[in-house]
Amino acid sequence: MSQNVSRITDKSSSYSIRQTANEESWKLQYDIYKHLTTLSTGSILLLITFLEKLFNKPIWKGLVVVALCCLILSILLSFIVMNLMASQVRDMEVDQRFVKRNLTVIILAISMFLLGIISLAAFAIKNLMSVGVIPAS
């Protein structure tokens, strides 16, 4: 019985080096999506600030819609990825279907984030140029 307790409390005696490395890899990947949700949420707040405080008559309003939709999708997809990763760690199994499904959601989450940031940047640059903050060349 003391050996079972040792396995529960002492990872070094119960996990192989590969299992420990996999566990750390899962933690780091999970953190990526936590940060992605934080960055997406912050970008949405920045977009709202642009609309409320800086630009009375914004140009290229369609970019606002694109940015907002993409950033919200990025948040939702990141939550899905985190949930999938948590269930994978809980089950302690890695199957190829999971890897392919997870990779698809990961690519979508990152793509939506990048598209949202690019739309936000284009909107900000165009509107800052229109009010003279950034000189037009």
Give me the secondary-structure topology.
Blueprint: H1 2-9, H2 11-14, H3 17-54, H4 61-91, H5 96-130
Description:
It is a single chain. The chain has helices at 2-9, 11-14, 17-54, 61-91, 96-130. The chain is elongated and about 65 Å long. Residues 1-11 have low confidence and may be disordered. With 137 residues, it is an all-alpha fold. The chain has one domain.
The counted number of beta strands is 0
Report the span from N to C terminus.
76 Å
Sheet/helix structural class: mainly alpha
**Cα-atom radius of gyration:** 21 Å
* Proportion of helical residues: over 70%
Provide the number of structural domains.
1
What is the overall shape?
A: elongated
Largest sheet properties = none
Written as H for each helix and E for each strand, in order along the chain, the element string is HHHHH
Q: What percentage of amino acids are in beta strands?
A: under 5%
Structure annotation, total helices: 5
Oligomeric nature of the chains: single chain
The averaged pLDDT comes out at 81
Regions with little confidence, pLDDT below 50 for 5+ residues: 1-11
